[in-house]
Amino acid sequence: STNTSTYKRGAFILFEGCDRTGKSTQANKLFEYLQIKGHAVKFWKFPDRTTPIGQTINAYLTNNQELDDKAIHLLFSANRWECMPKMKNLLLGGTTIIVDRYAYSGVSYSASKGLDLNWCRCSDIGLLRPDVIIFMDLSTEESEKRGGFGEERYEKKDFQEIVRKTFALLKEKDDDDSLWEVLDAKQSVERLHEQIVEISLDIIENCGQLPLKEG
Ligand code: DGP
Ligand code: NA
Ligand code: NA
């Protein structure tokens, strides 16, 4: 017999933030933690550079290909859309997904180049919504101290400064402000991990009763 009362979908846990804020480190640590504890969990990284669209994005980010700002924006968005069926199936099947970057990076990075913020949001309308956004917040001075930025297109101090402000604006404009967990990324790796585990276990425990959100 089916017992719907014990059915639980997976949680969609999203990490967002500027470059060099420790996002990927924490996302990976959380993934390993949940795996060891026996949770059904998958890790997802955007942009997913392995698909044909992702390969074009990679060529753009590594400065090997030029593309119009709006065209690359739409490719980043398409890269998320192409993953939706798989992500949706996993979540409905009870697997928690830890996602490193998503549409919030999409809007923040593109709007920071001067594209209209509301135009930037359009192509992501209808994507699955995360259950929580763990936002790793760090001043650009601090992130630069951490061994400096890399060689990729957006990894420049002045630009990162604007991206950080745009992320803050997105949080402010979000109707669902409770979705955002802003963490001070200056703390130690272990201290941050403890907070992230606590937040995530709570989300995993409680999101099961809620439908997946699209919008
Ligand atoms: P990462 O692999 O996390 O270092 O991301 C690569 C770079 O691309 C990083 O500087 C952030 C940026 N980025 C990630 N997603 C998007 C997006 O959807 N749109 C734009 N314009 N930039 C993005
Ligand atoms: Na990067
Ligand atoms: Na992306």
Automatic annotation (TrEMBL):
Its EC number is 2.7.4.9. Residues 15-196 form the Thymidylate kinase-like domain. GO terms for molecular function: ATP binding; dTMP kinase activity; nucleoside diphosphate kinase activity. GO terms for cellular component: cytosol; mitochondrion; nucleus. Keywords: ATP-binding, Kinase, Nucleotide biosynthesis, Nucleotide-binding, Transferase. Pathway: Pyrimidine metabolism; dTTP biosynthesis. InterPro entries: P-loop_NTPase, Thymidylate_kin-like_dom, Thymidylate_kinase. SUPFAM superfamilies: P-loop containing nucleoside triphosphate hydrolases. One of its GO terms (biological process) is dTDP biosynthetic process. It comes from the Eukaryota. It is an enzyme of class 2 (transferase). Belongs to the thymidylate kinase family. This is Thymidylate kinase.
